[in-house]
Design brief:
The chain is of the alpha+beta class. Among the domains are: 2-36, no CATH class; 111-196, Fusion Protein Consisting Of Minor Coat Protein, Glycine Rich Linker, Tola, And A His Tag, Chain: A, Domain 2, CATH 3.30.1150.10. The protein has five helices and seven strands. It has helices at residues 2-16, 20-41, 114-119, 126-131, 161-171, and strands at residues 111-112, 135-143, 149-156, 176-177, 179-181, 184-186, 188-196.
């Protein structure tokens, strides 16, 4: 019984007595929180704007170079001065020669020199001669102004390679009378038929 009374007395003392240290600590904590809340809710004042330094652009004006003087064209060439009066040192000019009378030039076509053709006749191939094969080969022969053979071509074949070759070989040994134009020999081309008649 006595223990219960002591407990009740202690509880009553706790109720009646205030703990000032606890109250002061709670009050300080509330004040700190309230101040922090007020700081959060207070409108933020923008920081003072620093005056921006004005950017100054320096412009250097460059004077254009002085215009170049246009070159003056050279003065036109003056025509040479002709002295119409002959000086005593200059010999008198001879009178112009009369024009030569036009020559009547006879144009002559080129041809085979007959003696050259007789001395170098085409050799009849022996196989064709035995078989009795014949034909005509038409050659086109290019010659220079002296009558020398430059090139030999078959224009129309005899349809036998050996006959064509024999005609070309003979033509390369021939001499030609060159074509004459206006009295001058010129290079030209000659068409020459070569006949191969089989022997009987």
């Amino acid at each position: 019984m006595t223990q219960d009374l002591e407990l009740q007395v202690r509880n009553d003392d706790d109720r009646e007595g205030l703990n000032w240290a606890r109250i002061a600590g709670i009050t300080c904590a509330i004040a700190v929180h309230a101040a922090a809340l007020l700081l959060l809710l207070a409108p933020m004042t923008p920081p003072a704007q620093q005056q921006e330094e004005e950017q100054v652009t320096m412009v250097n004006i460059i004077k254009p170079p002085p215009p170049r003087p246009t070159p003056t064209p050279p003065p036109p060439d003056q025509p040479p001065i002709e002295n119409l009066d002959p000086s005593p040192i200059d010999p008198p000019a001879p009178p112009p020669a009369p024009p030569a009378p036009p020559q009547v030039a006879s144009d002559i076509g080129s041809s085979v020199d007959p003696s050259s053709r007789r001395l170098n006749p085409p050799k009849y191939p022996p196989t064709e001669a035995r078989q009795g094969v014949g034909g005509t080969v038409v050659l086109v022969i290019s010659i220079d102004a002296q009558g020398n053979v430059l090139d030999v071509q078959v224009e129309k074949s005899s349809r036998n390679r050996n006959l064509d070759r024999a005609a070309m070989d003979a033509a390369r040994k021939w001499r030609f009378n060159p074509e004459v134009r206006n009295g001058q020999p010129v290079a030209s081309r000659v068409r020459v038929p070569v006949d191969f008649v089989p022997p009987n």
